[in-house]
């Protein structure tokens, strides 16, 4: 299996944007937390979170096909499939818990980071109810596809409130590293 070190090298070969690198790191941390909670393969889930948007900056029109093809060439079919399915409108089937988790964590984690960025104390006092309220405000973080957030939680089989709480907790524990 691809190591986290190899995954970081692959990521850094395609991505230089600090905000995009932070996004992938936040999703990686949330995926690791879910892997632990669900007794899944933490390394596999970590790499899927870290690499899910690795080709977005360099190959936006081909995303996620470039990273998916690279992973398949490396024999990482399960991670490749999860990455190929992390947006519902791509119409890729959700075969595993990993597939569903990545979908559920990607958009919502990005949204929660956006919530932190407009708060004077970042994530320090962010509450689940505040995130729910912001989700209803279509003008806030308008590029975040709310349908993906709701569908992701539904497919993953988690209550949205519990999902948000877990993500906040993970990000709060890592706030210094993440700058939120």
Structure, described:
This protein has one domain (4-178). Helices cover 66% and strands 0% of the residues. The chain is built from 10 helices and no strands. The chain has helices spanning 4-14, 18-38, 42-51, 65-73, 77-84, 97-117, 128-136, 146-156, 160-173, 175-178. The longest helix is centred in the N-terminal third of the chain and has 21 residues, at 18-38. It is globular, with a radius of gyration of 15 Å.
List keywords for this structure.
mainly alpha, 0% strand, 180 residues, globular, single chain, 10 helices
Question: Nearest-angstrom radius of gyration?
Answer: 15 Å
Shape type: globular
SS elements, strand count: 0
Largest β sheet strand count, sense and barrel closure: none
Strand content: under 5%
What is the SS-derived class?
mainly alpha
Elements, N to C (H/E): HHHHHHHHHH
Helix content: 55-70%
Number of helices: 10
Assembly form of the protein: single chain
Provide the number of structural domains: 1
Low-confidence stretches: none
Q: Taking all residues together, what is the mean pLDDT?
A: 97
| N→C terminal distance | 31 Å
Give the topology, please.
Elements: H1 4-14, H2 18-38, H3 42-51, H4 65-73, H5 77-84, H6 97-117, H7 128-136, H8 146-156, H9 160-173, H10 175-178
Summary, kept brief:
The chain is mostly helical. It contains ten helices and no strands.
